[in-house]
Amino acid sequence: MGNIKTQDILNTIINDDSIEFMNKMEEKSVDLIFADPPYNMQLGDGLRRPDSTIVNGVDEEWDSFESIKAYDEYTRKWMSAARRILKDDGAIWVIGSYHNIFRVGYILQDLGFWILNDIIWNKTNPMPNFRGTRFTNAHETLIWAAKSQKSKYTFNYEAMKAMNEDMQMRSDWNLPICIGSERLKGENGEKLHPTQKPEALLYRVILASTNVGDVIVDPFFGTGTTGAVAKKMGRNFIGIEKDKNYIKGAKARIDAIKGVEDLSCFEIYSKRKQPRIPFGAVIERGLLSAGDILYDSNRKHSAQIKSDGTLKSDNMEGSIHQIGAAVQSAAACNGWSYWYFEDKNKNLVSIDELREQVRSEIYGNAI
């Protein structure tokens, strides 16, 4: 086991069984797993529309299991293989429907993964429920999990917030299913794969949880959405797929994509990764002085700066974070974003601008 070096197979599609191949790969060598496994959603009788025409559902052999027990055993095997090749600070995304996602989550936890979020993908254009016997199934669920509770996983918080018009990205994502020119067709003109995922979905996943140059493994590669988006975003991929027809479509799709020349546009800025600057450094440099007053953005609360970089408000003293939390009766507060000072024109300016000035003076181009 573990005789195939990850660097030797970057940006390739492997025609093999995902469990067998991942068990041959180098241990702890990939940054992210994105898995769109079989859902075990066999419909039994053919699904028909009201006009009696047949709906093209998922009836492929790869989605057929003789029992729930067999599906669970298969899930445990591929997840164990995926866990083995994942770096200690790596993470996994698994997508599923009500048919399988609850079993997937149970097994993930059994194997030691630490669930970070479940994401609801709300399909803005779902397939209707033709029989009228249930609610229209308009969403799928993605589970995002770190390899362990101690993993220092990647989360590009600022990037996701910026994508969402400077508001925190929520765990419900409203995106359409894969349609139009993005949907790959076979020689017969029909869709090549029954459950091809939209590139917009993978874009969010990859932007949120990887960095430029990271390695993403997709053990159920299908028509290559993971690889296509990874190539567009300056990430590396390894796809594993048993079906040669899917591989043919995926390869043509990915080969047609021009690689990224300027990777700097995909570098993610993160305040959390920047060197820490104490508020006292702002005082030391004379950017603010002891006795100056800080305000919140609405001038509702104020605090006086002390010589050691702490604040005093009423009978309370403490750090910019502690006093910011105390005046709001909050459990916690980021003082850098909460407090403001008055400039010469009596306009309020965030003290975070002073932190960035100090950071630039100390570290210069190193950051």
Description:
The structure is a single chain. This protein is an alpha/beta fold and 367 residues long. The chain has two domains: 6-271, Rossmann fold; 274-366, no CATH class. Helices cover 28% and strands 20% of the residues. The chain has an eight-stranded mixed β-sheet, with helices on both faces. A hairpin with a 2-residue loop joins strand 11 (311-313) and strand 12. The protein is elongated and about 75 Å long. Mean pLDDT is 89; it is low at 43-55.
Write the layout of secondary structure elements.
Elements: E1 12-15, H1 18-22, E2 30-35, H2 68-85, E3 86-96, H3 101-110, E4 114-123, E5 139-146, H4 157-163, E6 172-175, H5 199-209, E7 215-218, H6 225-232, E8 236-241, H7 244-255, H8 279-284, E9 293-295, E10 302-305, E11 311-313, E12 316-318, H9 320-328, H10 335-338, E13 340-342, E14 348-350, H11 352-363
Parallel strand pairs: 1-8, 2-3, 2-7, 4-6, 7-8
Antiparallel strand pairs: 3-5, 4-5, 9-10, 10-11, 11-12, 13-14
Helix content: 25-40%
Instruction: Give the CATH H-level superfamily of the largest domain.
Output: Vaccinia Virus protein VP39
User: How many strands?
Assistant: 14
Mean pLDDT: 89
Shape descriptor: elongated
Strand content: 15-25%
Strand order of the largest sheet: 1-8-7-2-3-5-4-6
Radius of gyration, in angstroms, nearest whole number: 25 Å
End-to-end CA span: 40 Å
Could you name the CATH class of the largest domain?
Alpha Beta
- Tell me about the biggest sheet? 8 strands, mixed
- Provide the number of structural domains: 2
